[in-house]
Amino acid sequence: MSDRDTFLKEFRGETLGTVSAQSSADELFQNQTIRPILKLQNDLFIAVFINYVNKNKADFYSYTVEKKLQTIENSIQKDIKFRNSLKGIVMALFTVEEYETYIKNSSDLNKRMMNLLIDRLKSQVQLFELESK
Length: 133
Fold this sequence. Notes:
Blueprint: H1 3-12, H2 25-40, H3 42-56, H4 65-78, H5 80-91, H6 96-104, H7 106-122
Helix pairs in contact: 2-7, 4-5, 4-7
Protein name: Glyoxalase
Organism: Flavobacterium limi
């Protein structure tokens, strides 16, 4: 294993979520790779989303909580450039081996990745209450 791969795995930390003998390959990848990266990059994702809404959703801070939650989901699901930027933030912390695993089933893994990120941002919607432009 290269120094980079060793560093990344140690830097990201432990597996998050349940891993068992019955876990699918995608579930293993999600819990061993994606979840630790999302946790590590959480502050960056918050900053990126704040920048996104400041540039693209001028009235976001006046939305109801319900509308903010819907905006988080729609922004990630429908804005392809934004979604690709978020994927890049995650993929930059893949090891080469993880990347090779990812490209074999990128469509399903992208869905998992974005759904986890949407859930993560939604669970922190209160951080988008008092932000100013």
